[in-house]
Write the structure tokens for this entry.
Amino acid sequence: MNIEGEVFERYIPDSQKLVDFGFEYSNRVFVKNFRFFDNMFCAKIKINESGSVEGKIYDLESDDEYLPLRVESQIGGFAGEVRQKYIELLIDIRDKCFNKKSFIYEQTNRIVDMVKNTYGDEPEFLWERYPGCGVIRNPKTKKWYLAILDVDRSKLEKNKEGLVEILNLKLDPNEVIEITKQKGFYPAWHMNKKSWISIILDNRIEDSIILNLIEKSHFFTEKRK
């Protein structure tokens, strides 16, 4: 992941805050130039509406792009100092113009909002080492009815790689058998595969279908006589 991706991961831009901060909006992109490091360098920052941030750094003396900033082997010395000042600039933009979001995928955040509206429950982040992993539990019984985890796609699909966000849900064992025969549903990662399933939250499965399954998972956390 590049510098910008690391700084802005799990953040979404606020259009009004960007404008108030001096960004110009044109062709669905926010743009602003920043001088930094004692005016020796200029950072040209572009932010699209989805939150993707692109930055190019130029040496103002030569007017050339300063590529050593991107080279890991040169993070020490002068290049390292420039890199650190650039990161500080990005963090300032993030803190003043972006809002933090719980998860990376748009569908994940939609589902979490829908669960909150339906049950009043919000995700808990239990593991400091895994800030992107959260669970939602029934406050009456303290039982989980869903978990959202960051995993490598290879955990669910062989010969495929890349970080994905998955949703784990508990269902009747007979339904688990049937639903995991369908495309887009997998035996649960890191949970009991007889009772839990995993779904990659990349919009392949419609929100309405997922919400119906969440209702079933929530049922197992209810107190019953």
User: Anything to note?
Assistant: The helical segments are 3-8, 15-20, 77-97, 106-119, 173-179, 207-219.
